[in-house]
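Consortium newsletter contribution from the modelling node. Members have asked for a concrete example of what our holo predictions look like. Here is one, prepared for the benzoic acid complex that several groups have been discussing at recent meetings.
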Amino acid sequence: MLKNFRMHWNPDSYAENARFVSDLGMPVVELLSPQPGERILDLGCGDGALTKGLLELGCEMIGVDSSPEMIEAAKSLGLNAQVMDGQELRFSDEFDAVFSNAVLHWMKDHESVIAGVWNALKGGGRFVGEFGGYGNVSTVVLAIESALSSRGLEVASPWLFPRPEEYQELLESRGFLVDSISLLPRPTLLPGDVGGWLRTFAHRYTSALPETERGGLVSEVIESLRETLCDDNGDWIVDYVRLRFFATKIYNNADD
Ligand code: BEZ
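And here is the predicted structure:
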């Protein structure tokens, strides 16, 4: 999902620690309002759980993801899916809609993503998505960055969580009409503790340490967050913030 840094996704551990990601994707599917027969690109399709749902609604689906492991999992569901970096999309004027759930924050070159989506859409096509917006998981980011800093390490964030006005500006600069865009705080219940979340998603941070020291780092971060994020029932609730948008390719300039 990133240029230069290759995340290794394990579909089994993803299913165990991150199934909630697709489970919580229904509001953005509703915003997309997919119609039977529409040709739709699922940008960052992961293991294809939502792609399959859209296929079952009668859409013609193509999924792309930069992770070969996830694309294998998507193909095993019978989906049309291919390995492709969202920052280097190679489609032209062929989709009624591009849909994306919970991945655009991994593709830090937002301008390239938006340019590729513009090229992929037919005139009048919709780009509908949701991803981490400004302030997303900031409590966890602060805790892990501070644990690394106390070890003398500074690691660049693997994610970019923009403000709505920043993302709107990028969409409009490429020619999109932004029908709606907003930031939605969505405190999110994890399937386990925050350690599972860190092991699934924060490899860029944890891998700054030798393998033998990573367990200690994760334990320290879990303890530093317990009081803030873990409730009396032992449930871990993380401060997710969604950036949800609906944009339309308003014209099809043959010169583009
Ligand atoms: C998110 O969906 O907001 C997210 C997922 C993994 C890492 C960071 C953010």
